[in-house]
What we know:
Blueprint: H1 7-31, H2 38-45, H3 49-55, H4 59-72, H5 85-100, H6 103-115, H7 120-148, H8 156-171, H9 185-203
Helix pairs in contact: 1-2, 1-4, 1-6, 2-3, 4-7, 5-8, 5-9, 6-7, 7-8, 8-9
Amino acid sequence: MTTEPSAYHQRVxxxxxxxxxxxxxxxxxxxxxxxxxxxxxxxxxxxxxxxLFKQFPTKAALFDAIVTASWHKGGEEEPxxxxxxxxxxxxxxxxxxxxxxxxxxxDLFRIVIAELPRFPELGEAQFxxxxxxxxxxxxxxxxxERDAGTAVIPxxxxxxxQFLGMISNxxxxxxxxxxxxxxxxxxxxxxxxxxxxxxxSRYAASD
Length: 207
């Protein structure tokens, strides 16, 4: 007799987990991290407190899961294969735009910024579980291009910072101050193209 959960029960568990994450994100944003209880989250998500505590025994564990889920939605794809720096960076840049323009990404950063003075661990979670793994995936891609001989990059960490920064400084960070900031698809694609051009001009190997 198997003890493995059935496909139905796995699906139900995943649906409840997703409902908890959505409810927690909204309540953290509306009421603040400190003023949002796990009991309130369970009620809003439509699950029992026992169900919530089984998956997330603490509020910190729940926030970590929110961060991880939010960043992984845009970072699940395999990195592009090495061999064409322009094509690879263009693909990564467009994925990054898609990630940064999701509403829940801006919401997540607003929660962290608002609560950081009292809960510095939220910033640590955002960095260690979200931004850093994503950043490392881009750095590893640049290393693969360097190893393939298609790029000359003395410092892949700096290069990854440069590339992502050129995109996020237009696409994302103005939204933290300007709620109506919503550049169109053409404008964002142009930013990616210019960032790629800057990177290839600086780092592409000579023929």
